[in-house]
Amino acid sequence: xANIRDLTGQRFTRLEVLRLVKQDKHYNLYWLCKCDCGVExxxxxxxxxxxxxxxxxxxxxxxxxxxxxxxxxxxxxxERLYWTWKGMKARCYNKNNKRxxxxxxxxxxxxxxxKHDYQKFRRWALDNHYEDNLTIxxxxxxxxYCPENCRWATSKEQANNQSRNRILEYQGKKMxxxxxxxxxxxxxxxxxxxxxxxxxxxxxxxTPIRGHLIVN
Length: 216
Ligand SMILES: [Zn+2]
What we know:
By secondary structure, the chain is α+β, with helices and mostly antiparallel strands. The protein has three domains: 57 residues, no CATH class; 78 residues, no CATH class; 51 residues, no CATH class. The strands form four sheets. A four-stranded antiparallel β-sheet has the order 1-2-3-4. Strands 5-6 form a two-stranded antiparallel sheet. The chain has a two-stranded antiparallel ribbon with strand order 7-8. Helix 7 crosses helix 8. It binds zinc ion (ZN). Zinc ion binds next to loops.
């Protein structure tokens, strides 16, 4: 062991060489190293010198964990659709979400398929005309996030849908504009134009359509 290059005390990224442990029959040298994380491990000198071994293994574990956080189900979390999915779930299930009260707080849920499987949600989105300028819109605002009740809409369409789902109260009855229209037997268009003309609920309810008084 006269002509070995002594690595004792040298540092290789996270590893500090403590002492030579052995030499195998091919004259490879093995060194006991102490990693910055505290683990001691015997490591071949060639790996140290080439830079192939930088830690006890903790560095690779950290890097792969980091890659996993950046990449969920094989899709980059930069993907807008992924954040749509995350946001939808947060609104429904995270009480700290600032919009929770309008979603989870009102009983809005995400269907099981979507809740647990981003890929299923993604597939539905791509099969249903998803584009990056569209947002997910529940057709019935009281309904849940599920394929039957969702579509991709522009923010203008979504605003329309929200007013369609606006709650109107009259004599203790609370219903959306759509529900009132159904209840009164008028079209949503008629209902909407009356609202736009700032009719009171009393007038809307008591104004007959085609000669019929709808509600007594
Ligand atoms: Zn380590």
